[in-house]
Write a structure and sequence with these properties.
The complex is a heterodimer of chains A (355) and B (521). Chain A is mainly beta. Helices cover 9% and strands 49% of the residues of chain A. The termini of chain A are close together. Classes of the chains: A mainly beta (355), B mainly alpha (521). At the A-B interface, α3, α4, β7, β8 and β9 of A face α1, α4 and α13 of B.
């Protein structure tokens, strides 16, 4: 149970790329067939890289292990699964650098329910899956709500380093490969009410964590996400000052990092996070224009999170709650996000076995 | 306590491996804005194009083009020498420029124009007090920039450019065959032909005429893009000389001709009624009151705050092939009463369709969306037409004719449709039933009849005349475009069906002209 934060972060951090609505469980990752996806993403240059990528994918686990202790990784033969509900709203957004409201949108609300699963293949290698269902709604105007399964996300996290660091605690490092792929043919071309951006993506992440013996921890994690082109239903579009006579949209890649710190012990976690996403290209929303999928979507968000192991007979159950607020952005909504849900740990290994 | 060295090394090595591995994953995903226009050599020079019927000019000699110097004249010989030396020092940038302009200048300008329309197709943002600023032609760079390239504005712009190019080219053709001066690459064996060249006489240069007439009109229609427009015009004039297609005096004569033709069109544009197409608040209220007096529900903007109706008096703008009386005579009858069972039925169909929209239907709605930041419906049909023109290997003058015919019909469709919309001022489905939502942007003007249907039927009509082999494709595109508005949740079926029939009648005016303009099919 202690791995909850990894799941939360999966939805919040690992797959950046939210348009005007920053917190969308964005997920989608490629399944174990990461290799296949990667292959499709970029055929030629990847061929040589496939073997190591596949190896890494099937090797590692964790998306964001910024937590602590043994708790960060899911132990071998253990499943950590959860159901999370997320509620994200904004009534102001940044049109390029200009913050504004829009009477034709009012308040845009995005809700999602996600199932997450994190399984320990070994004590050092976890595989993580997320399946989100998303609803969008605008409180004003004539634009239709959208809903549906968004992107399947799969990640592999490998804890390649774990050792004492000074006398006060331990230091660990993780390598993560994660990918996302739309599960349905939902339209990405109806921003800000589309349920996602419709882009296949793959991310590489590195995470460094220090956990004190007394419970304090500090974690830094950073990722770079490559995104595949998106195909629209229309044969032309205008962005970045140019008319494109094609249905293919080149999606800029995304860099993000998160720094978090707090207290984590015996399954109870309190932490604060600061997250930044920087899209490596893309245009601004023009004045009074609709947002476009390849816009430069940048944001900075502060969050607070609590995870609390529920006492009693269901000792494998934990409750989690996260509150996040976007403090600054570009071409995204200034959203407030609440994520809440339960996580349950299932041990498949025999008792007495190493946990 | 010091950090163990092995620890540092292992961390670094893992991260470096990862970084190197992923940085080299440079996906091959580059998207180019537009594929290059196909390069072709015209199959026929259309030597008689100087006799084809004019539309605005009185005839090809309305603008005089003086006789060129003889090819033995030292000044002309010096021009050839200059081309030779420029070709000897040609750069790869210049070669790329030549390639850009080798697929017909008229078609390339059409592509540039579509970009300008998409760029300007943005409604102004409301003021804090809920009113809306109006773009000003007198101060185009101020926010909101002039123009707002909405569908009627765009239809008019496409047509002005296309018709002016066409008239300039017919005049150029007339003088070309009067003076019969060959191109530099034909006059001098040491000058290479770097663009498709035929035996078409080169004085005055058709490319120069097109560059001048187009850049003058575009600067009027899209003043904020002046830098891009003048740069492209200069490039086209440079390129035809570099390519051995025209000499400096060919180009100068073409530019003079193009500018003179443009002046005629600038004057027409100043008095075609566009300046009064916006109207005043009192005039809008008068339309609404007249409709209410008949017991009908008048249209109300569904934007928040409510936006003034889009160009309510565009129906009074001068058409190309139709007189004001034709516009009135072809106007469809009224829509079903807003209180009638038939209207309730139409409304129910919209609601049911949007509520049960399939992904295929959504794709069709999006394909023909043509809302803000797009080339608009008239631009969409220009995009449809261009590959047919390239494939037919039309001469420059015939390519211009095809676009002129198409864009005249589209402009007349805009005039006729806007006349209809603001005669009946019929509410959109979302106004009669606020539970109906749209999957594309809701246009800010009355519902009946559908602009997209009218445009598409007029365009399909003209294109089917020009390219009979494509007729069934044009018909299915027309029907798809019309139905897309139902799928989008923004039109009733009756808007689409009536609009299609209306658009066909409007298109026929242009087709009848084309049948007797002396150009053959």
């Amino acid at each position: 149970m202690t791995f909850v934060c990894a799941l939360v972060e999966l939805s919040q951090v690992c797959f950046p790329s939210h348009p005007i609505r920053p917190h969308r469980p964005n997920t989608g990752n490629l399944p174990v067939r990461l290799g296949v996806v990667v292959y499709r993403l970029c055929t030629k240059p990847l061929k040589k890289l496939l073997p190591p990528l596949v190896m890494l994918a099937s090797l590692s686990a964790t998306l964001h292990a910024q937590t602590v202790d043994d708790a960060i990784m899911i132990p071998k033969k253990t499943l950590f699964t959860g159901a999370l509900y997320s509620h994200d709203t904004w009534n102001q957004y940044w049109e390029g650098p200009l913050e504004r409201t829009n009477g034709n949108l009012g308040t845009v609300k995005t809700q999602s329910v996600s199932w997450t699963g994190n399984y320990g293949i070994t004590d050092r290698l976890d595989v993580l899956v997320t399946v989100p269902y998303v609803w969008t709604h605008a409180s004003q105007g004539v634009l239709h709500s959208m809903h549906g399964f968004q992107d399947f996300a799969l990640g592999a996290k490998y804890n390649f380093l774990d050792r004492p660091f000074t006398e006060a605690g331990r230091i660990r490092a993780f390598a993560v490969v994660a990918g996302g792929i739309p599960m349905t043919g939902y339209t990405p071309d109806f921003q800000p009410l589309s349920i996602g951006l419709g882009a296949k993506r793959i991310a590489a992440r590195g995470t460094l964590n220090f956990q004190s013996n007394r419970g304090w921890f500090l974690t830094g994690s950073t990722a770079y996400t490559w995104r595949d082109n998106v195909t629209l239903n229309r044969n032309s579009y205008f962005t970045e000052g140019q008319l494109f006579l094609t249905n293919q949209v080149q999606m800029p890649n995304v860099f993000d990092y998160v720094v978090s710190g707090g207290w984590f012990r015996r399954g109870l976690m309190l932490q604060g996070l600061f997250f930044q996403q920087r899209t490596q290209g893309g245009g601004d929303i023009r004045r009074q224009d609709m947002p476009f999928i390849s816009n430069m979507m940048n944001l900075s968000r502060v969050s607070g999170m609590v995870m609390y192991p529920i006492p009693g007979p269901l000792h494998n159950l934990a409750y989690q709650f996260t509150y996040g607020y976007v403090v600054d952005g570009r071409n995204v909504g200034q959203s407030t996000t609440i994520t809440t849900g339960f996580d349950y740990t299932v041990h498949f290994a025999k008792r007495g076995q190493k946990q | 306590m010091s950090v163990p060295r092995r620890l540092v090394r292992s961390v670094l090595s893992v991260f470096c491996t990862l970084a190197v591995m992923l940085m080299s994953v440079t996906c091959n995903k580059q998207v180019t804005p537009a594929p290059p226009l196909p390069v072709f050599t015209p199959e026929n020079d259309d030597a008689n194009a100087g006799t084809w019927k004019m539309i605005v000019l009185s005839g090809p000699t309305q603008i005089a083009v003086p006789a060129p110097a003889a090819v033995t004249d030292p000044a002309y010989v010096a021009e050839l020498t200059s081309i030779k030396s420029q070709q000897a020092a040609i750069t790869s940038d210049q070669k790329n420029m030549i390639a850009d302009w080798s697929g017909s200048g008229v078609l390339r300008w059409n592509e540039i124009l579509r970009g300008l329309v998409a760029q300007s197709d943005l409604p102004p943002e409301p003021n804090p007090d809920g009113t809306y600023p109006v773009p000003s032609a007198a101060n185009p760079f101020a926010f909101p920039q002039f123009p707002f390239g909405n569908p009627p504005y765009a239809a008019r712009a496409y047509s002005y450019v296309a018709v002016a190019q066409y008239e300039a080219l017919k005049a150029a053709w007339y003088y070309k065959y009067q003076y019969n001066r060959l191109s530099p690459s034909k006059n001098s064996s040491s000058i290479q032909s770097l663009m498709p060249t035929t035996n078409l006489p080169s004085y005055p240069s058709e490319d120069a005429a097109v560059s001048a007439v187009t850049s003058t009109l575009l600067q009027l229609l899209f003043p904020t893009a002046v830098d891009q427009i003048t740069q492209q015009a200069a490039q086209q004039q440079l390129v035809v000389q570099l390519a051995g297609k025209a000499s400096a005096s060919d180009v100068a004569a073409g530019v003079a001709l193009g500018q003179a033709v443009a002046a005629v069109f600038v004057a027409r544009a100043g008095s075609d009624g566009m300046k009064n197409a916006t109207g005043t608040t009192a005039q809008w209220q008068a339309i609404a009151s007249a409709v209410a007096a008949k017991g009908e529900i008048p249209w109300i903007s569904q934007e928040i705050p409510p936006r003034p109706p889009q160009l309510p008096f565009f129906g009074n703008v001068k058409a190309w092939m139709m007189t004001p009386a034709d516009i009135v005579n072809e106007r469809p009858g009224p829509p079903p009463s807003t209180s009638s069972p038939q209207m309730a039925q139409e409304l129910a169909i919209v609601k049911q369709t949007v509520a049960n929209l399939t992904s295929d239907q959504l794709a069709i709605a999006q394909k023909w969306q043509d809302g803000v930041s797009t080339t608009t419906p008239p631009g969409h049909w220009n995009t449809v037409a261009v590959p047919y023109i390239s494939a037919a290997k039309f001469s420059e003058v015939r390519a211009a004719r095809a676009l002129a015919l198409l864009d005249m019909a589209l402009h007349d469709a805009a005039v006729a449709c806007w006349d209809t919309k603001y005669t009946y001022y019929n509410p959109r489905p979302e106004q009669l039933d606020p539970s109906i939502k749209t999957v594309i942007g809701l246009p800010n003007f009355p519902s009946y009849t559908s602009g997209h249907s009218t445009f598409s039927a007029a365009a399909a009509d003209v294109l089917s005349y020009l390219f009979p082999a494509g007729a069934s494709d044009f018909a299915s595109m027309r029907d798809e475009a019309a139905t897309s508005r139902l799928y989008g949740g923004i039109h009733y079926n009756i808007d689409n069906e009536t609009g299609k029939a209306h658009g066909k009648r409007v298109g026929d005016y242009t087709v009848r002209f084309a049948q007797s303009d002396g150009a053959g099919q």
